[in-house]
Design goal:
Layout lengths: L13 E5 L2 E5 L8 H8 L18 E5 L6 E5 L12 E3 L13 H8 L9 H12 L7 H8 L9 H12 L19 E4 L2 E4 L4 H10 L4 E3 L6 H5 L7 E4 L9 E3 L3 E5 L4 H11 L1 H8 L4 H4 L4 H6 L7 H7 L3 E6 L2 E6 L4 E3 L2 E2 L6 E8 L6 E7 L10 E10 L2 E10 L6 E2 L1 H7 L6 H8 L2 H4 L10 H20 L10
The structure holds flavin-adenine dinucleotide (FAD) and FE2/S2 (inorganic) cluster (FES) (2 copies).
The site of one FE2/S2 (inorganic) cluster has 12 residues, from loops.
Length: 479
């Protein structure tokens, strides 16, 4: 596909609205991070760099995707300039307007003394600004969730949370969204030697994938983005999945939830939470709001991390993947997708078109727990997911899957066998926990020792029993 030229024959760059004004970034490589672009090219240095890997929130900006009206907080250190094509970008410089009057969020931060060194402050302001755009007055849980991706080392969170309450309380209905019309996203851009391709149909995506075998396939970029931000390494050809119509669909049918291959965690969360509250709880602890707003469910599976949060949940729920390739589509259970450490069954020319999670039969119990050192914004040491069917006090069906216990996310088949047909009791769970050693030989690493992982995994079985029985949970965090 030849890159488009403007009417004057000039090669076009990435076009977006920057703080309400049409903007073009004509000569930067499309996989440059938005943070580098703002600070280095656009002269907007209000957005700060802390960690450059999505962990601190100092770089938070707000993005309204093309065709959406929702402002979402994202980490500028991982988001790329190419992803902005056709979008609106709001940075801290855009808040106070020409008259320099502080925005209500900025005013609340001042009134509540919520800033000292100020390094984290622009990120907090933007995270709160995005929260303020949502339609309801947030409760404290929603405020904490919106701020879980922002670190402050000096001020402490009490005044910041107070500023959030003040700024978002009865926020006026005419919320301050950037004005101006969004430009349409371009399907192809060539900037210097770099090519950015953003197909809008699955067929076009598959054709491009076949003709550019060396291309980098980019979804949210929360994994891949680290190579741009940390290593300053850029692919010659990048294919973005973000505008592929079929992959942006989220569909609920009586028998399944269908999550398109470009649907983000934030987008999938409400439907997942409604069907399986325990899955919703895991998704709410996935990274931070900034990460969930761009990270996709498919990207979390395709990166084949042994400690990814969603694979064990989807395995226990017996979910399937629809893999699309040049010869059509094939379905594969999630548990057959992972072949070896960081290797999947995905062919070179295939993509994950959608994920299908079957609706559970009435009476099916599903629980999942993520064990990590911090509650928010942390990677799992172990994650366990359990789907149970009970009849007349007996376990008639059991699917258990773990992350963090092997080189790939995996079912605990021996443990399942030790449980099916047995009486549903705490003793049964304790007995079956011993089978865990036959299922897994976990690794020792800086996150947890092998012994800890085995102990936690066995304890989670007891926790499952107690949780379902309404009893107090067992301590699972002690080695
Ligand atoms: C700060 C931070 C916190 C994080 N927290 C968590 C966490 O709590 N839990 C967790 O599990 N992970 C976490 N992650 C890891 C990461 O966010 C997830 O794995 C995320 O879901 C990846 O999705 P993405 O859309 O950003 O993928 P990308 O980075 O765009 O891509 C990842 C890989 O998937 C491939 N891919 C993407 N979409 C498709 C598709 N449709 N078909 C085929 N291949 C595809 C890409 O080619 C690439 O190889 C975190 C990452 C960061 C930076
Ligand atoms: S600089 Fe830390 S999250 Fe971006
Ligand atoms: S005010 Fe210094 S890090 Fe928050």
């Amino acid at each position: 596909m030849a890159p488009p030229l403007s009417r004057t024959g000039r090669k076009m760059g990435v076009r977006f609205l920057l703080n309400g004004t049409a903007h073009e970034a004509p000569s930067v490589v499309p996989t440059m991070t938005v943070l580098d672009y703002l600070r280095g090219e656009a002269g907007l240095r209000g957005t700060k760099e802390g960690c450059a890997e999505g962990d601190c929130g100092a770089c938070t900006v707000a993005v309204v995707r093309h065709g959406s009206t929702r402002a979402e907080a994202v980490n500028a250190c991982l988001y790329t300039v190419g992803q902005l094509d056709g979008a609106r970008l709001m940075t801290v410089e855009g808040l106070s307007g020409r008259d320099e009057t502080p925005d209500p969020v900025q005013q609340a931060m001042i009134s509540c003394h919520a800033s000292q060194c100020g390094f984290c402050t622009p990120g907090f302001v933007m995270a709160l600004w995005a929260l303020r755009q949502e339609s309801v007055t947030p409760d404290d849980d929603a405020i904490h969730e919106a701020l879980a991706g922002n670190l402050c080392r000096c001020t402490g969170y009490r005044p910041i949370v107070e500023a959030a309450r003040q700024a978002c309380r009865n926020a006026p209905p005419d919320r301050e969204t950037p004005d101006g019309t969004m430009p349409a996203p371009q399907e192809s851009l060539a900037i210097g030697k770099a090519i950015w391709l953003a197909p809008v149909t699955l067929d076009a995506l598959l054709t491009l994938k076949r003709s550019h075998s060396e291309a980098l396939l980019l979804a949210g970029g929360t994994d891949v983005g680290l190579q741009f931000s940390k290593e300053r390494r850029h692919a010659a050809v990048t294919i973005s999945t973000s505008h592929v119509r079929e992959m942006r669909l989220l569909k609920e049918t009586p028998d399944a939830l269908h999550i398109g291959g470009a649907v983000t965690i934030s987008e999938a969360l409400p439907a997942c939470e409604q069907a399986w509250p325990a899955l919703g709880a895991i998704m709410r602890r996935f990274g931070s709001r900034q990460i969930r707003n761009v990270a996709t469910v498919a990207g979390n599976l395709a990166n084949a991390s042994p400690i990814g949060d969603l694979a064990p949940c989807l395995m226990a729920l017996n979910a399937e993947l629809d893999l699309a390739g040049p010869d059509g589509e094939r379905s594969l259970p999630v548990e057959e997708f992972f072949c070896a450490y960081r290797r999947t069954a995905l062919g070179d020319t295939e993509v994950i078109a959608r994920i299908r999670i079957p609706r559970p039969a009435d009476g099916t119990i599903f629980r999942a727990w993520k064990i990590s050192k911090r509650h928010d914004q942390d990677i799992s040491a172990v994650i366990g997911a359990f789907r149970v069917v009970l009849r007349n006090g007996l376990i008639v069906d059991m699917r258990i899957a773990f992350g963090g216990m092997a080189a790939v996310p995996a079912r605990a088949l021996e443990t399942e066998r030790a449980l099916v047909g047995r009486t549903w009791s705490e003793n049964t769970m304790r007995d079956a926990g011993r089978a865990m050693e036959r299922d897994f030989s976990p690794i020792d690493d800086q996150r947890a020792s092998a012994a800890y992982r085995l102990r936690v995994a066995a304890n989670l079985l007891v926790r499952l029993y107690r949780d379902v029985a309404g009893e107090s949970a067992v301590e699972v965090n002690q080695a």
